Every structure is written in C-alpha cells, then in structure tokens.
Amino acid sequence: MMRTWQITTVTDAARARIALARLAAAHGVPTLERTRLAADLSAHLRQCLTKGGTWQLTLRLAGSPAEEGLLHAVVAPSPEACAAGEPPWEVTVPCPEAAGAAEAGTVAEDPAALAEALLGADEDTAVVLDKLTEQEDLVAFHREELHQTNQGVLALHAELDAAGRAQREAFAAERSARNEAESARRRLTFLADASAVLTASLNHEEIVRRLPELLVPEYASSVDVWLFDEDDKHRSTPHPAAAVLAARTGRPQYAADHPGNLPGVDDQPASALDPATPLLCVPLPTRRAPLGVLTLSPPGARWNPDDAVMLIELTRRASIAIDNARRFEHNRDIAETLQRALLTDLPATPGLSLAARYLPATHGLNIGGDWYDAFPQRDGGLITVIGDVTGHGLHAAVMMSQLRTALRAYAVDGDSPGRLLTRLHRFLHHLQPDLYATAVIARFHPDEPTLTWAAAGHPPPVLRLADGTVRTLDAKPGAMLGIPLTQEIDDHTVQLSPGSTLALYTDGLVERRAQGIDPGIERLAAALGRFDSAALDADLEGSADRILHPLLSDSERDDDVCLLLCHVRSDAAS
Question: Which pLDDT tens digit goes with each residue over 105-157?
Fold first, then answer.
C-alpha cells in the first residue's frame, strides 16, 4: 500500500503530518515512536516550506515478506529539485499491526478535521509527557538511590578508615607491648645473671670490683661504690651531697638540674662536684644499717624509670652479697686464727726431722677441719698424727681441738696408734653423733727400726725408703671415726732405715673433683721420690715447700691442706 501527498503550503504540511500520525496509529506504531516520527516529519517539512517549492510525501507499507511490518516515509522535492540534486528525506518505522481501515490515513480538507487532528496530536503529546514524567520520576528515584549508595559508600569508606586506624593503633599497641615485654625480659635476664655473678663470690672486694664491669656501659657511664667502714682508705675522696643524704635517710636520691621522676627516688639539686652530670645515689641496705652508697651516672641524658627500678633492686642484691661475703671473711679469719693457734709447734726429736705445712682454702668456707700434731710419749716414742674433721668453719675447728686434746690425753697411757684411733672413734661418736673425722697416726721410736701406724678412713701415708723406693701404705684401714659402728682399728708396721721419709697429708693436697684422689696420691709419691736422702737431711722445710708447689699450682684450693713430713736422718745410724 502506498499513499502520496503534495505539499506546498503549511496546511498541506499539517494535513500530511496528520495523515502520517493516523496511519502509524492504525498500524500499531507505539505512541512514543509515532510522536517521534511526526515530530521529525514536521521539522523536515518546516525546512522544506522554508526552501519553497512543491514537496511530495510518500508513505508506503512494505508488502514483501522480507520487509513485512515496515512503514516507509519519504519526503522528496519536486522533480525540478531532484534534478538539481536535492536528496530525499527517508524514515522507516516498524508496524506491529495491520491497518484497521483503508481510509486510516485520509485527512479531510475541512478545518474542523484539522482541529480535531490537532487535538489528537495533543493526546499523543500528553502520553509522551506522561512517559516523560514517569522517566523523570524514575530518574529521580535512581538519583536518590545513587545518592543513598554514595552516602553508603562514603560511610563504608569512613568505617574502613576507622577500622584501618583502629588496626594500626592495635598494631602499634601490640608492637609497644612487645617492645616493653622484651625490655622487661632483658632487664630480668640481666638482673638474674648479674645477681648470680655477685653472689658467686665470697670476697667483698671482688664483688665491689665486679659491679662497674656489670653496669658500664649499658646501664651507667660510671659507677662508684662507697663503703662506710673503708672510709679511711678513701678519706681524701669527696662524696656528693646526694650520696651523703642517701646514707643518712636510707632512700635513693637523684641529683640533677631537672626532676628525675624515678619511682621511689627523691629528687635533689645537681651535685656541686659535677653539676652537669646527673647522679643516682642508692644506699646499700642491710638488716642493721646501710653498708655504703652506690653512685651511678646515666649512660645517656637520663635513666629510663624501669632501668632505675632494676638498678635499685640490683643494688639491694649486691648489698646482700657484700654483707654475706664480709660475714664469711670474718668467720674465716676467726676459724683460721683459731686453727693456727691450735696447730702444734713440732718437737725436736733425736734422729728424726719434722716439717709441717698448713694452707687454708682459697675458695669457699673450708677452714677448720684439717689438723696435724706431734708429741712424745713417756717411753720416748713420738706420736705423729694428721686428721680431717668433716664440715668446715668454727664448729669443725672446735671439734678438731677437742680431738687433738683427747688424743694427747689417751696417748699418755702409751697406747698404740690403732688403739688410740679406736678410743677416738668412741669419743667422737659419744660426743658428736652426727660429726665424723678421718685420721692417720704414726709412731716412731728411736730404739726401734720400725714404724707403727694405723688409719681410719684417711688417705694412706706415702713412705720413701732410703734407696729412693716409694710405697703407699694402704694396708686395710679402719672406717671413719664417729660413724655408728663398733670397730677395733688395727696397727700396721713397716721397717724403717736411716734416710726414710714418711709423708702424712689430708685430702686437700691430692684430691681434685675432676680426677678423684688416686692420681693425686700418685703425683705426691712421684714428687717425694724425686728427692734424695741428702737433700732431705739438709733442708726438710724447703723440701716440703717444693713438694707442695707442683701439687697445688694447677688449681684453686677449695679445701684446706695439711702436710707432715717425718724424715729419719741418714746420720741417725752414727
């Protein structure tokens, strides 16, 4: 189907537009598409009327199967304009429905019909406006959704930022806590290690010397230890006023040109001795009164409060260590003095030379247990004895003196060494059931060429014969003195000749923790065997020193040492 309109005037254009709209409506073109098609046609026809001339509108409904349901509109100029090369205007729209009447596109020339068509066009426009209003409402709705979405995104970003800040703060707090825990662990480790070093020594001067080595340079740049009873040694050394105040009050003092704000520490003005250097003065406390004052200067500008707390605690422990060391030194000096006072001046005996050595321990409170003695009997014999009381200190020294006194009392009766040890065993068990002792007794007699000896739990005597042969007198000994056991200790005898030397000793001379006692006895035998009779005759005292030196020079003495040499002179036969 095809229809054609000639357009010369505005009325022709309006009638053509109305016809197009009606035809499109009749073929089911949607209102929006129909309105858009009519608007485009009106705009083009307005241009055509402006140019003038006659124009031709052709509407064609495609009938071929390939183009079925398409409405073609073509505005072409007059044949003259086409000849002049004026291009046609074409548009195609889909038609979903067939026309309801053949005259659907007819428009009467009556003005009333034109008005009616105009009103119909307004209806289409109203529909378009309604659609437009719906779209605007939809756009407003989507705009509001977009706004809400944007607000939600902003809120989410704010929450994410807050969460990020909280996470960063949590990480920072965790890192700070970890650093504080590590610092606390480091301080506790240092405090434990330093305490172990200080308490390991029983020499107070060594403890005082070790304090600066432990604290400088990590916790202090300088350290001074002021001990009150040693003030005479440092009378010319002035002490800061804060140190004097700490000594008087027993409270730590901080002297500087700024507040220290240290826990448990009083702030004082800067020291006049060195105003530019802050000083921490901590008393060395004991149960009775402070021993002195520890004065420290900081490793930097000032101390960390936690470091100051640790330093005050370390000072307290150092004070305990110094106090314990002094008590030990005092007791050791008393015990050593008592023991040396109880040791015998060796008697002069025809044909027999004696040399004795006693050396106190250099490590630990091991004074008072070892002893030696030598005294004559009424028949002209000489009793020599060496022993070791278990335990150390004053108690051991007192028990040693009691055993020495008891032995001398028993020996008056003329008993043999074995009988004397048996009586000492009973005496000690009765007097001190929980205290034990070891001993060796040897009896010499100028009229007898034999040595009688007996041992009770003690290292065996070592005998050098005149020909240089060395023997260990390890015949079956008795048990330790004082143990809850009834025993009779036997005597043993060995032939002596001029030039022979008997060595009695305590275990401190030969025993080493890492080696035991047997290698030490072998070393003593070898050392004694290197002497000849002439050297022993000439200088038994010097020989005793030369025996001790190689045996003791390789280690610290953690026990006291006794050595008693009994030498039968070579000229005794003459």
Answer: 566 666 766 666 666 667 777 777 888 888 888 889 888 889 999 998 999 99
Whole-angstrom distance, CA of residue 557 vs CA of residue 513: 11
Other beta carbons within 10 angstroms of residue 369's beta carbon come to: 28
What is the rounded distance in angstroms from the CA atom of residue 99 to the CA atom of residue 22? 10
Taking alpha carbons only, the member of 26, 48, 24 closest to residue 36 is: 24
Tell me how far apart the alpha carbons of residues 545 and 96 are, in angstroms, rounded to a whole number.
137
350 pLDDT exceeds 80? yes
What is the reported pTM?
Answer: 0.53
SS (H, E, C) 288-353: CCCCEEEEEECCCCCCCHHHHHHHHHHHHHHHHHHHHHHHHHHHHHHHHHHHHHHCCCCCCECCEE
* CA–CA dist 54, 36 (Å, integer): 24
Q: How far apart are the first and last CA of the chain?
A: 175
Calpha distance 91→73 (Å, rounded): 5
CA distance 223 to 38: 106
Contact 124, 38 (CB under 8 A): yes
- Distance from C-alpha of 484 to C-alpha of 501, rounded to nearest angstrom: 35
Farthest-apart Cα atoms in the chain, separation: 186
Burial tier of 495 (Cβ tally within 10 Å: 0-12, 13-18, 19+):
exposed
